[in-house]
Amino acid sequence: MDSIRIRGGVALQGNVCIQGSKNAALPILAATLLTGDSSLLKNCPRIADVYAMVSLLKSLGCTVNWQENGIEVDSSRVRRGKMQSEAVKGMRSSLCLLGALLGRCSEVAMEHPGGCCIGARPIDLHIYALEQMGVDFWCEDGMLRATADRLHGAGIVLPKPSVGATENVILAGVCAEGDTILEGAAREPEITALCGYLKCCGAWIEGAGTERIVIRGGRSLYGTEFTIPADRIVAGTYLLACMGTGGSIFLERAPREEMGAVLEVAERMGGHFCSSDEGIYVQGPVRPRAVSRIETAPYPGFPTDLQSMALAVETLGEGESLIEETIFENRFRVVEEFRRMGACIEQVGERSVLVRGVSSLRGADVDAKELRGGAALVIGGLMAQGKTNVTGCPFIYRGYENICRDFRELGARIISV
Ligand code: EPZ
User: Fold this and answer.
1) What is the pTM of this model?
2) Which atom of ligand 1 lies nearest, measured to the CA of 303?
3) CB-CB contact of 54 with 261 (8 Å)
4) Is pLDDT above 80 for 84?
5) 382-403: per-residue pLDDT in tens?
6) 9 CB less than 6 Å from ligand 1?
7) Which of 11-20, 24-33, 54-63 has the lowest mean pLDDT?
8) Protein residue closest via CA to atom 10 of ligand 1
């Protein structure tokens, strides 16, 4: 099932239920290590990145059981000794285990998380922050090792917002002695969800979702039942797909309060919306308008994870659109693939492209090189006339439970093969 086949040109119609959030589920799964108890996480998405995290938790001694409405994780049998020499493999996609392991077991060994297709993905901010909490880092045999004989609270100022570094400080801070005050924290909803889970477990945290978070350490934590919120990036993916194909869809459970920037851009594309706590009703334009400038930014700005999808829509825009990527250094890998479909895209800066809308895209064979770019190519295939074959789809399955099923429910002619 490495490819997706699409016969495009159909306006999307129908209702789709939005899955649980990948980027909320991953740090919350890591946080279950801190309780030494059992937690039930409802609405946990069944995606490859979650399966990878689950296998890491099992390798650390957790018992994990999938249930119909979620996943139960019991971390009572995680043992310090098990951590001493255990190199936690595959950590790059689960860097948030770093803070949780330091909080629970005071030490960790992991592959040095390298870069990926979209950028170098450094971890200097994680190290800078955790060192101030008493963590010692060193490299040994190609592994990154860390110990914290006495994890203590600190006053930390992050020079720029980092979702992962903010999560690691929170995960370590709930177990540290004393208070941690984090300034310059990331404000993404996934941080708020993580803090929501930890507060249900008995943690004391204030300021989640703001640039200043205070964590009171040293409180014992217990298991709980928690519902993973809906995935704002998956909802935004389907919303932008409707902007590109036209039609009208209902995004059940879409977290409208977290999607302000996306809705603002989609409205400028010519979309119309009606939203409630149930979800968002979306009416797409016959042809998208060109949005003169779309710039990604940390939350609550336009999310970098939806940049490729907005680019896809603007390939058919009525006019020119400048798209600027300010978060990651290499997030235009899809440009070459869209050109194969007849798009007119010019790289005009190190991190910006100018899209000149064309009247139609033609189906083509295209290759997904990373998660969100792959989803954007699927949108391109839905918008194009004729057949599109998207390869490299395991990247897409890292973050989307079943993108083909979801789009079929919206009337698309799409199958995975
Ligand atoms: C999280 O990645 C998300 N991943 C990403 O989603 C998302 O794009 C990103 O936040 C930004 O919103 C998960 O939550 C699992 P960052 P993260 O630390 O935490 C630089 C997806 O598609 N930086 O906020 O790795 C970094 O290079 C993924 O679901 C440092 O310089 O992102 C980037 O330029 C892709 N040093 C910027 O900060 C560091 O130590 C933001 O990165 C850490 C980050």
Assistant:
1) 0.97
2) 12
3) no
4) no
5) 999 999 999 999 999 999 999 9
6) no
7) 54-63
8) 163
